[in-house]
Structure formats: C-alpha cells, structure tokens
User: What shape does this take?
Amino acid sequence: MLTCEICGEELVLDKDMKTHLLLRHMENDMGCPLCSWSGVAYNELRFHINTTHKEKQDHDGAEGRGGHSLVRPSSSPTPSTTIVDSHCKQAIGLSRSEGSEKGVANGNRFDTIGGGVSLRTSNSTLESKERMTVSPQAFSRGESGGGRAVAIVEPTSSVSTGFLRSAQDSSRPTSRHCNAEDSVGVGSAEHTTVKQKRFSSPLKEKRFSCPMCALVCTDAFILQEHVELHLLEESPAEEAVLGATSSTEAASSSNSSGGKSYECPLCSVVCGDCYSLQEHVELHLDYGTVTNAVSPGSDLRLARRLQEEEKQRRKEQEAKREAEEFKKLQRQFGVDGRGGYRKQMERTMEKAVSRGVMVPADFHNKRAEMMEALASGVDDGRTRTQGVLGALYVYYQREVRDCVHVWLSADTDHFCSSEGDKGWGCGYRNFQMLLSSLQRMEPYTTCLSEGSVPSIPRVQVLIEGAWREGLDPQGATHFNQRLQGTRAWIGATEIYALCTSLRVSARVLDFHQPTGPGDTHPRLFDWVKQYFSQTGASGARLPPRVVQTTQPPLYLQHQGHSRSIVGVEQKKNGSLCLLLLDPGCTPGDVRKLLSQDGSTVSTAVRRMRKFSGNLKHRQYQVVVVDGVLSPEEKQTRVLNSRTLQAERIP
Assistant: This one.
C-alpha cells in the first residue's frame, strides 16, 4: 500500500500514485489576496501584488486600517507553503483561549471564494497537525482595524489523510481565508496548532496538450475537464458513463480511507480505486464497446453487430473471389473477348517480326494467305500429315514382336495445332482428324464434301448452325450462342451436335468413374478393343496379328484436352495399350512415322502408346460414329438433344 506524503491518501498501485500526484498536487496553492489570480510561484505572486495592487496598498496604508503584506517564509526548510488571507475584525494575535476550542477542536474549515465566507466541516480525520507561524510584520497594521493580512503557514508535518475541493470550484484549488469571528487566533509571539487540510507543491512550468485537438492547457485539471467535454459530445451514452464515474470518484474522495472497491457499470470488472475505474471506463469509450450504457443487453447487441459486419465482409470477399475465378475460367476457355483464330495468328506473327525471326515481307505474305484461307473456309493443310495409319500398319507387320494382336482404325490424317489455335484448338483438330477419315468411307460421302476439311473458323460457324437448328440448347446457352471470334474450347457434346447436323450418326459414351485400381479405367480399354475387333476377319480361325479395320477413329475427351484413338495393342501378357494421335504433337514428330528408319519410327510409336496407368483422369468421354442419319432420324435426334444424355459406363 502506497501513501501520499502530501495529503496522506493510500493507493494500491504505483501508476495510481503517479496519476494522483499529477492530478491533485501539480499546481501551487498560492494566490493573490486582492483578486482571483492563483496557481503561481512565490516570486510571480509578489511581483503581481507590487505592480498590480500598488495603489491599493498605498491607500490602505494612508488610512491606517490595515495593509497587505506578503511575508517570505523563514530560512528553515518547509515542505509546502499556504497563504492565508483573512478578513479580521480583530488581529490574529488574539489569545488562544478565545478560539482554540471553537475552531481547532471542531475541525472546522473556512473557505473564502470571491469575497464570500463559507464554513465547511472536514469529513476526514486529520492524522497530523501543523503549527502556523505568523510574522509580526504581516499584522503591524491589522490589529487595530478590519484590514487584510497575509500570513505564511509553515506546517510541521507532511502527512494528511486527504483534502476536499471547494464546493463552488472542484477543478482548481482556491485561496484560503479565515473569518476572524470564528477562527482561532494566537499572539504575535505564539503559534496555533490547526488541522492540516491540504498542502500545495511548487508550480512547475509545464504545458498539457489535448490528445483530441490542438488546445494547450497550463493546468492539469483544466485539461481533464476539456477532455471530458470531448467525450461528452461524442454520444449520450458516454455522458451517462462519465456521470457514473464522476459520482464514483466523489464517493471515493469522501471515503478515501475506507478501502472500498468499485465495480464497472459496463461490465463485471471490479477496481480497487476510483481512478482505476475511471481509466477502465475510458477504455470502453476509446474502443467503442459502449453502445448504450444503461442497457443490460449492450454486449449482446455489440456481438450481434460485429457478427453481422463479419458476415457482410465475408460475403463481399466471396463475391470478389468468385468474380476473379470466373474471369480466370473465361480466359482459360477463351471467352474473355481477346479475339479468335485470326487475331491470335496475327499477334503471333507480329511478335515474330519484333524478335527478328520473321521479316516484314513474310509477315504480309502469310497474313494474305491466312485471310484467303479463312475466306474460303477450307484448312490450308499446313498442319496436316497424311499416310499415318499406312505407316503404322507397315511398322507392326515388320518390327513389333511383343504384340499378340494390333487393331488399327481406317486411314486418318493427323492435324496439329498452329499459331492461331495453340492452347485451345484441340477439339477442332480432333474433329478434322475424324472428318478426314469419314470422307474416305463410302457411306459418308453422300453427306460430306469429299477432300475438303473445313478450317477452325469454319467449324465454329458449323457448330453455331447446329445450335440454330435446335441441337444441344444447353450448350448453346453456355457459349452464349457464339463461337466465332473466340477461343472457346469445345468438347464431346459439341462434336455430337456437329455430327448430327451433318447427318452423321454419333453417340457419346461417358466413363464417369475409374473402374480399376489406382484410378485406372480398364473398362474403357476393353470397350475400345471390342469396338475395333468387331469388324475383323470373323470367318478365319486365327485372326491376323495386325488388322487395319474400316472403323473411324474415336474422339477421346477428358478434362482440359482431347485426342483421337486410332488403334489398340494387345500384349502377350494380355494387357492393352491404346494408340493415340495428339493435336499437341508437332508435324515433325508425327512425320517421323513415315521414316524408313526403324528406330525413328519406334520412337514415334512409343509416344503414341498409352497404357492403363497413363490414363488416370477421373472421367473420360468418347464420341463414336456409327452410320448416316436419314432426315427423319436427324429430326428425332434434334428433339431428343434438348435433354442430351450420354451412355454411362459402367
């Protein structure tokens, strides 16, 4: 427990003692006896009286009724000094018997504020007394009249239990005045023992800046009242809280020696003193945790408000994230408005010119050729490789020894991606491979133009035409009825709609889940083997080891890419291996199949082989072509495609 050496108040914590000293004992108790000017040092007060009230002193001295004198304390060290301004009807040097029992024994306190005299009785018991020494010069003229006298009070003890502020001005200490009729007086050579109410400390020239505005105060109490005005103006709830804390502080001042505890009116925290409680309540105000100080459900409302704000913030973040992901998907699937085949081709050639790879003359020549091909709607054939299946048939007849059976599709040309569709044109290129095979088969020549493979922009036009006929309305809505001028990816359903529009019978098979260990699809491999082997030599006892069937290739779609199945191998151990043509392969790699070098062909074939462990996507879709549609069958499939469903296996 800490005890204030000035007023005797007991505090618990060191920071509370610092706050007490700052707020209670920072300013001086010395004041002018002729006006309300106070709170200054001794030298300043003396200069003020000698200059401001010089005429008043001369007038009083001439009349002989009394005088104003300011007597400096004796050379003996004193902890503090109190100036007492007394309006006396008789000199203060009266006999002790007249007033000692009246004033000192009763512990009465006399405060004079603004010229009026008021009597106040201290509520606290003084633990020490002070002895007042009065200089004779101070009352050389005051014994004979009712003049003023200024005396120096020299305390002999520095311990006091506390002090009370004036009822009219609780924020600042005022000058103390004694009524001659009720106060206790002594002779000029004697001392009187009185109860100590308050000590003052020497003034320190300090300035206090308001933390909420630019105002600078010279007094700590003025600063405190100024800051409280800021808090009162913020909300009525804060005013109520400040009222509660001020009443608590008043109660604690009157009972400073009782050891009470104070409970916060806004929460269940209990403080050891009023100053800690005031700081705690101000924390509520600073952090905005008070919405209605008088409502018991303020904490619940605050929690609900914070919860609503958190939900709103999460919704905004979720919406922002979804918008960003949607933009990424648009960019990934080529529907972000960055242009289609022609713009990408031109941009690629411009970059080649800027790097010095292509001269401007070649740029203009290639651009003119591209524009001519786009106008005709026929692929220019620069990415086309013919004779691939014939080369594979010769290779398996001559080189391969570890295969029991090999089934190949009908003759198919390979189409690879170009600068205009790199990264998004695999679906269109696989359709070109399928179409190149169908154009060589007799049943399909009636509905397909022989020898001409449409370009990618032309394929986009054909798919949009299929949508206008009523095929796959859900897919049309997905692409907003538009493919031209975009880099949109297409899949198995778009290939089905395009084939149906061309009167080619097609089916979509959906291998929607793995059917083997390690996320493999053995059912897919078995189905492909059955598809190619069903047209083999059924009458022969032993089918040939290598068979080139009349079956068109299969369109194989999985997440992010598509390829064409042009054959299947069956090894001696019974395992199956698919032969795939990938649009991502360059023309140079595919043309290695046409080489006469066996090792070069073996390297190219090795890239085409895909075993069961190489196909581990969760879902695969296969488009199968199995004939030509009549006009009536086509119309039926158009109507059925409104709810397009694939054949699920298994």
About this structure: The chain is about 40% helix and 15% strand. Residues 228 and 242 are 8 Å apart (CA to CA).
